[in-house]
Amino acid sequence: MGQTSKNGNEIMFSLILIALGLLIFLIVAYPLYFIIIASISDSTLVSTGKVFFIPKGISLFGYNEIFHDSRIWTGYKNTIFYTFAGTFVNLLFTLPAAYVLSRKEFKARRFIMLLFVVTLFFNGGLIPTYLLMKGLHLTNTIWVFILPFCVNVFYLIIARTFFESSLPSELYEAAAMDGCSHIKFFIKVALPLSKALISVIGLYYLVGHWNDFFTALIYIRDNELQPLQIILRDILLSNQVFANGAGVGGDAGGYAQRYADQIKYGVIIVSTLPILVLYPFLQKYFDKGVMIGSIKG
Amino acid sequence: MSSQMIDIDRKTIGPGIRLAKKPTVLNTFKRDYQLWIMIFPAIIVILLFNFVPMYGIQLAFRDYDFSKGLTGGAWHGLHYFKQFIDSYLFTDLMRNTFLISLASIVLGFPAPILLALILNQIRRKKMKQILQTTVYLPHFISTIVLVGMLNVLLSPETGIVGYMMKSIGIDNVNLLASTNTFIPVYVLSDIWQHCGWNSIIYLAALSTIDPLLYDSAKIDGASRWQSIRYVDIPAIIPTIIILFILSMGGILSTGFEKIFLMQNSLNLPVSEVISTYVYKIGIISNQFSYAAAIGLFNTIINFIFLFAVNAISRRFSNMSLW
Amino acid sequence: MRTKLMVFLTVILIFATVLAGCSGSDSNAEDKSGSNSGDNSGAKAKVKLTGIMVKHPLTKPLAEMEWLQKAEEAAGVDIEWQEITADWGQKKGTMLASGDIPDLFVGGNVITDADFAQFKGLFQDLSELISQAPKVQEMFDTKPETKVIATQPDGKIYGLPKYQRFWPASATRQFINQKWLDNLGLAMPTTWDELYEVLLAFKEKDANGNGDPNDEIPMDFPGGFGGFFNPAVLLGSEGITLTDGSSQGYFVEEGKVKNFLTDERYKKLVVFLNKLNKAGLINPEVFTHDYTKYQSIARGEGDTAKVGFTWGWVASDRFGEQLAPQYASMSPLKVSADYTGKVSWSYDYNTLNYGTNHIVMSAKSKNKEAAMRFINELYNPVVSMQVLFGSIGPNIKDNGDGTYSVLPPTDTKMDPGTWKWTSSMADAGPMYIADTINLTLGKDMQEVLTQSEPLKSALEVNLEKDVFPGMFIKYSDADNNTMSLNNTNVTNLANTNFAKWVTKGGVETQWDAYVKESIKAGLEQNIEIMQKYYDDYMSK
After folding, report:
1. CATH, domain range C173-347
2. Contact status, residue B241 vs residue B319, Cβ threshold 8 Å
3. Cβ–Cβ gap A158/B243 under 8 Å
4. Distance CA C274, CA C498 (A)
5. Could you tell me the pLDDT band of residue C24, with boundaries at 50, 70 and 90?
6. Which residues cross the membrane (chain A) (predicted)?
């Protein structure tokens, strides 16, 4: 009897799981699908609720307009560089620090943690920060995307927690017995065991760089250094401006108006596609038992 | 795991350490010099970029005077804080801000955990991958576009949600305009957008579970519900606690852009929050000092919350930020 | 192996960091030497300047504007432009506070009077240099009000204004669908009650004749109480003359500054709007739709119009070229048939034809004479005309007899408004369109002027007693701050209540409490301040 009810439960569980998965999928996927069809449909039809499942009044005006902007290619190039260089530096600074802060025998740990956490809350404001960057000659250079704030305390804490809970402390002690130093242990044991963590933190940093427009907005004046997001934001806001500037001087033109939303949705696709490609590569590190496999391997 | 164990082990580690002395930063420095090397770059970066500009906090207590430099203006003490607390909208702002972030935490915090647990249970690889990729996509939608989409999809006249509500008999509810629906729409759309993204961290934590644990749970006759309860959840508890402490530190920080874009004159009684108010007073004339004071006020309350929750957590779970 | 790699990478990184510092300063040094060499060379060589232009997003790159190249050449300058289309407010704060600014700023109110007060010493007082710019002097002489706009309370001039002459006396025109009226055999409404009846008929019958009696939206507006295209213009029916849209409610009546938000006549308007709303005559999404949707709906579907009565800048912009002919521009309504007082409208002439601070110079500029030469060039009326409409050649035709005409867009799909914004700095630029210049306007502006005709009599307002000269008044920094804080609170309260009362009613019972709240929020304090400045201004 126990056996059958257990099977029943199992089937029940699977059914609920599939139903839930399907529901989540539909809720998330429909609006995404909507973005795609809205990016090629007549904007007037979209905003008056005529486009639900099938694109209508199809035109590629939005994409044409986006890719017509020659700055976009410079933007892609810059963003890709900032993203990869920035993420590399982020990991280089964050992971060793997180490892150190996960070691309970490290006596300055509490103090340093507190020091770091304070920065999550208190900051001097934009103007002193700008003056500092200017003093360091970082403004209007590529380094402003890479060096400042390369340690995100939030991610540092996540990484520390992960090291704490997934690296049994016996592991280091055993290694230390064999004369293994901290640096060596970190590189040879801790990092290989933490592929999932590195993927997550790396992904978080990566996407942070990819989506960042504020740094460029404040610190960059040279058009050649602008990242993709600034350029896309320019294109996007170009169409939003109609909202407040209307009328005075015939600001809003019917011609531009009709396609404004196409650009809006097109921008999302143009900016997201490249980074989507990365995800499947990282995804495999979240699979069950990756860590154990690497211990044995 | 416990620090006790490490202390015991230390006796066996190196000849350089005297056993009798209590370990302090100084006398462990030589032993831990490699740790110091590893954390040194991070300390420098944080000190330089985060702490150096902190002198700017003074601005909250001073008049901003351009000709005298950032910190040269006349000292005003708590003037700007008083101005904020006495201001006409103060109670409304505090209430709205608090309610929105509380709702965000209560609903938004558990959602990615549940999603991660669900994803972790799916055994079909293809299905899991598709679902996982889909749920993380909305994170990339910019706020402007998200709010634009909300306007289109939730419109009572022409939106798909409007149609669906009409078809099940709920009529005349404008989700975008009612003071009752603003917070739900805000919070749920936030969950929709970021839940998948935030679940990644839990998925990573779940991936560190030794598959042998599941096997032995199965052998012990545990159902899948039970293996979630006794294997999965304990594995992510540390991450949950730490993230929870951090989220409590954001009790008075609501985002700005999304709320601002979602505001309209009908929902304004519940949607005017501190950040949007600061924007509105700041945009007309550069009220740097006033804005700085409101910001600092916010920060201090957030920090108190963080401190309290961190202390509670340390007491009861032995987990804490520092 | 891995260890070595890590060490190697760390070393690289440290080098990179060091290099970053160096290369950063190198490029700066280069920049400086660049501008210095310009400085030192003879008068014939071009002087290098830097400038920021805050332009409309549609506007093409400045480098492609022929007239600008010519103007720079004529002034003997070569300006390196940084063109900004978005987020200027955010950029500006840090830029000014750090003192890191270019020689020139161009754009509509790019640097505000509040900025001048706050960042003392950062901007050049142009009154000392005006003698070097005869064209600016000419504008000040023939249009003395432009000098008033430019002059700060302390007598200094930091930013120069624009004068664009041709714009109508009001931004808002009132449109009704004449075809619907004809279809239903109705007369053009002249009072609020008649409007109600007409809108009711629009709703109940199939006014657009497409067979569906329920797809007509009788009335639509952007969703605020005041400002352009919003229902506050109906206060004209009760004798209130709004100024520049009165987006915060302030107006002047018989020499007294008032705010309609606490005026009984506004209460009456709200009651009327609530009545319309209750009858389902106002677009149910009026307080939630965004601009795109607001515009799209009025553009209907093909030949089928959807909106009966609304406000806008010009019919072709509001309804699209295809539907525009269906709509007629209306005269202002009377509040009731027996109303004998004056009927007024929103008087926006000043805000449409003048602008503050369209060009500003840095006090740190090393080449003030050269910058002034360039400014002088822009205020040459023939150049100014091109600032507004685009270069002579592609955008403006030189008729050869001293007269000029604005040309239609070369791309026939584009409307003239968009064409103007694409081709030049347009309304954002610094300009002086002298009254003497003989320029024939394009089709769009002529349409605006024709459609303004029905408003003409309502706009014959008493400039001495009924118009708030907001454009010409300079507040002190302290007053400015007080007022903007108060206005944030007052408009917050007003917006909320207006929307609530229109959709749900309740104005009669809540009015008194609301008036008290408004006073508490600072409304009367602001009126006092404004009255003081108004009296001061009028006595001059």
Report:
1. 3.40.190.10
2. yes
3. yes
4. 10
5. very low
6. 12-40, 80-99, 111-130, 142-163, 185-207, 263-282
Residue for token pair 């000392």: C128
Taking CA–CA distances from B221, the nearest residue in chain A reads: A6
Regarding an ipTM greater than 0.85, the answer is no
Q: How many angstroms separate the most distant Cα atoms in chain A?
A: 82
Query: In this complex, is the C-beta atom of C488 within 8 Å of any C-beta atom belonging to chain B?
Result: yes
Domains C27-167+351-441 and C173-347 in one fold: yes
Structural domains present in chain A = 33-48+56-292 (1.10.3720.10)
Chain A's closest residue to B114, CA to CA, is A20
Q: pLDDT tens across A240-264, in order?
A: 544 444 434 344 444 455 566 777 7
The continuous run of DSSP H or E covering C253 comes out as: strand C250-253
- The distance of Cα A259 from the centroid of its chain, to the nearest Å, equals 29
- Taking the C-alpha atoms of residue B279 and residue B111, their distance in angstroms, rounded to an integer, is 30
Which residue(s) pair with C405 in the sheet? C397, C440
Chain A partners within 8 Å of B136 (Cβ): 279
Question: Model confidence over C248-263: pLDDT tens digits?
Answer: 999 999 999 999 999 9
Helix (H, G, I), strand (E, B) or coil at C151: strand
List the 220-239 stretch of A: residues with Cβ below 8 A of C.
221, 223, 233-234, 237-239
* CB of B193 closer than 8 Å to CB of B138: yes
Question: What is the distance in angstroms between the Cα of B321 and the nearest Cα belonging to chain A?
Answer: 7
Residue of C nearest to A132 (CA): C98
The CATH number fitting domain C27-167+351-441, selected from 3.90.226.10, 3.40.50.300, 2.60.40.10, 3.40.190.10: 3.40.190.10
Instruction: Please answer whether residues A191 and A102 qualify as being in contact, where contact means their C-beta atoms are separated by less than 8 angstroms.
Output: no
Cβ-based neighbours of B177, under 8 Å, separated by 6 or more? B264, B266, B267, C287, C288, C499, C503
CA distance C492 to B145: 25
Measured in angstroms, the CA of C76 and the nearest CA of chain A are apart by: 24
The token pair at C510 is: 């809540």
Query: In this predicted structure, what is the pLDDT of residue B20?
Result: 53
Supply angle C-alpha B148, B149, B153, rounded to 5.
125
Q: Where are the beta strands (DSSP E) in C377-530?
A: 396-398, 403-406, 438-440
The backbone torsions φ and ψ at residue B35, rounded to the nearest 5 degrees and listed phi first, read: -60, -40
Tell me the per-residue pLDDT of B144-166, one tens digit each, with 9 for 90 and over.
788 888 888 888 877 888 888 88
Give C-chain residues touching B177 at CB under 8 angstroms.
287-288, 499, 503
Residue of B nearest to A278 (CA): B133
Cβ-defined contact of A122 to B54 (cutoff 8 Å):
yes
Enumerate the residues of chain B whose CB falls inside 8 A of the CB of residue C521: 88
Residue to mutate among B82, B88, B145, B287, with most C CBs inside 10 A, is: B88
Task: Check: pTM over 0.90? Answer yes or no.
Answer: no
Cα–Cα distance measured from residue B101 to residue B113, given in angstroms and rounded to the nearest whole number: 18
End-to-end CA distance of chain C: 85
Q: What are phi and psi of C205, to 5 degrees?
A: -105, 170
Q: Where are the domains of chain C?
A: 27-167+351-441, 173-347, 470-539
